[in-house]
Here is the input.
Amino acid sequence: GPKRQREQAPRSKVGVGKDTQEKETVIPERAEEAKLKAKYPNLGQKPGGSDFLMKRLQKGVFISPPFSWRLGRQKYFDSGDYNMAKAKMKNKQLPSAGPDKNLVTGDHIPTPQDLPQRKSSLVTSKLAG
Amino acid sequence: SLGAARSSPSLRLGQWCMSEGDPPMESRADIISTVEFNYSGDLLATGDKGGRVVIFQREQENKSRPHSRGEYNVYSTFQSHEPEFDYLKSLEIEEKINKIRWLPQQNAAHFLLSTNDKTIKLWKISERDKRAEGYNLKDEDGRLRDPFRITALRVPILKPMDLMVEASPRRIFANAHTYHINSISVNSDHETYLSADDLRINLWHLEITDRSFNIVDIKPANMEELTEVITAAEFHPHHCNVFVYSSSKGTIRLCDMRSSALCDRHSKFFEEPEDPSSRSFFSEIISSISDVKFSHSGRYMMTRDYLSVKVWDLNMENRPVETYQVHEYLRSKLCSLYENDCIFDKFECCWNGSDSAIMTGSYNNFFRMFDRNTRRDITLEASRESSKPRAILKPRKVCTGGKRKKDEISVDSLDFNKKILHTAWHPMENIIAVAATNNLYIFQDKIN
Here is the structure.
């Protein structure tokens, strides 16, 4: 794992000659918190807050919609993407499908015309179960 | 070394070794994600990140080698879960096996439940050592015979064959969890089991796959109000109406299914009061319970949080009766452990058969054992270098500051990639299984 550069291990016991009022060395957790806040000043106050937990609930590899239909199994026509792209590119020239219809890039929003004939599902979605 | 007599009940913490035939078994592809002995201890199941289950069986003791106890050899391997894709949410569903739980054995076959994030499967593992020969309707090579050509009948004979172990999925329990399954637990009634995800717990009947009862639901109406999630759940070993679940806030709720159909109100609430003066940004994260296990006796339960293991008496809710520090020296490393996400590692814990000792893992391939009676503890390492067959494992020590003694390892030298999250203890004997990334170590205590 990422090894931190060597730093002096905080003394949990007070050394000879040191000021015994050093609270930071008595509560290492607080010292660590100060370190973290120094690095990330925008860190939210409550780590247990709902944003934090929401992220935990959503763990999993998220594949964003424009790419999900490029997974090689099937192509899906996403009307939302298509309509948004149409609206955005009203004044621009739509990138044409080009001579190679099989070449799909991130910029190319598929139109109903250039989707291949839909084959039957190889993998039945469990949601349809 | 404690050097106790063979029949002494106390654990001989200093005398663990690997037996002759048990070199660490390396899973070629994948990280081991769960380890579980069956009720007799003769079978040991492991699940891995690639969705495979490998079952080891203990060999019968060899009379010609009286000093070597039964070794564990591969008994069966099968692909339990495959990766799936949730098209609706554009999320990949991992095939990683989160938990395996054995069913008590009722006939010659063995049954286990294995689960990934979304789907639980009941597997039947059965042996075949006989084959029928002399069928009437088919040839020896399986080709069908023309029934009109058959002029005489014969009775097929059973002949011995090489042992074949077959695994077949008998039930698939799917589509009941919106969130990620973290626990499954078989009930003492041997008919039902529970499955828990981050926000809900469901009760299943082993025979019925198209329905399950929701018995706990902590999902708030408004997700903005979400403050904690379920981290683990387990049925009581004897009382079939009682189960517990732990939370990310370090609390445990005990529920009685007799009180209501939806157990949103707990019967008991276990929480250790926090010292407000020591509260920090990390307090809640490190208090999150990663595992909860009832003792075999059913009187106690054990919880694992990031830095410690706590034993609770079910009769006392306001604090644990025992607390064991696993790696307290990490308290002064929380900042970097937060940055590299290690602070979210989910360590498991386990009891020995007599509940006199507990074991849990740590970093650098270290694992810790605590003897509840003598209050002694030991740190051992699961690694090829320190595990030669029949050699006793040497206790390890982490140096926390000041001068580092010879053979001690400093906190900064610990390898946080080598984490032991999963360990298991044989239900009756002093045999332990320790999963170190993609290696499985089996240690037995040495008999003098």
Remarks:
- Residues 1-14 of chain B have pLDDT under 50 and may be disordered.
- The first strand of chain B starts at residue 16 and ends at 17.
- DSSP finds two helices and 33 strands in chain B.
